[in-house]
Amino acid sequence: MLSRPSNRPSQPASGTVQGARLSKTSRPPSVERLESVLSSRSQTERLGHVIGALLTGGEVLALIGALGAGKTALVRGIAAGLDVPPESVSSPTFVLAHEYNGRASLIHIDLYRLRTVAEAESIGLDEYLAGSAVVAIEWAERFPEWLPEDRLEVQLTHRSPATRDVLVTAQGPRSSALLTRIARNWRIVQRAPVSLKPARPARRKAPAR
C-alpha cells in the first residue's frame, strides 16, 4: 500500500553503523542507519553487491544523490548480487525503466526527467511498486508521495571526485531487518574485500625438462 511518508523520528546513536562498525554502546537488536565512506566506484558496486545478495523480491530501494554520485554503480552491484550480469546495467534516464531477470527480477527506474505525478503514473510506477520484483529507483526524492512506507533509502553524497559518503536508512520492519543483515555483511566485506568478478584460474607451470 502506498502512502505519503511521515516525518522521520530522530535515530539513536546506538542504532547507527559508522564506517561499518556499531557504536561502542550496547548492541541493539536492529540497525536503522548505516553510514560509510566509499573510496571508489568499485567499492560502491561492492556495497551494492552486499545489498543485492540479501534481496529476495518485493523490496523497494530509494536511491538519492546528485548527478555522478554513484547511483547507477550501486545498481550494478545490486544486479550482480541478484545474479544479473552487472555489465548489462545502464542508466534508464531516457527510457525511464529497465527490467533485468536474475535470481529475482530487478526493475531499475530513473525519475530524473519526470516533472509531474501524471508522468510518474504514466510509466506504471504504482504497478512496479506493488509487484514482486526488486525495485531500485534513482532520484526517488522527486516523488516521495509514491514511495511505500516500507523501503530502504540509500543516499550518496560527493565527498571528493573519487570518494562518496553513503547513508542507508530503513523505513518499515522488513527494511529494518534487511538493513541489519546488510550492516553485518558489509563489516565482513570491508575486513576481507572480495571482487565481483570470478578469479582467474592459476596458470600451471610447464614441467622442467
Describe the structure.
Residues 1-14, 20-28 and 196-207 have low confidence and may be disordered. The chain is 26% helix and 22% strand. The protein contains 5 helices and 9 strands. With 209 residues, the protein is of the alpha/beta class. It has helices at 41-53, 71-81, 117-122, 125-130, 173-191, and strands at residues 16-18, 21-22, 33-38, 60-65, 97-100, 106-110, 134-138, 151-158, 164-171. Helix 1 packs across helix 2 (71-81) and helix 1 (41-53) packs across helix 5. The protein has one domain: P-loop containing nucleotide triphosphate hydrolases (Rossmann fold). The N and C termini lie far apart (73 Å). It has a 9-stranded mixed beta sheet with strand order 2-1-3-9-8-4-7-6-5.
Task: Provide a compact summary of the structure.
With 209 residues, the chain is an alpha/beta fold.
> How many angstroms separate the termini?
73 Å
SSE topology string: EEEHEHEEHHEEEH
Shape, per Cα inertia axes: globular
Uncertain runs are 1-14, 20-28, 196-207
The CATH superfamily is identified as P-loop containing nucleotide triphosphate hydrolases
Total beta strands: 9
CATH class: Alpha Beta
Largest pleated sheet = 9 strands, mixed
Strand order of the largest sheet: 2-1-3-9-8-4-7-6-5
Helicity range of the residues? 25-40%
CATH topology: Rossmann fold
Could you give the topology of this structure?
Layout: E1 16-18, E2 21-22, E3 33-38, H1 41-53, E4 60-65, H2 71-81, E5 97-100, E6 106-110, H3 117-122, H4 125-130, E7 134-138, E8 151-158, E9 164-171, H5 173-191
Helix pairs in contact: 1-2, 1-5
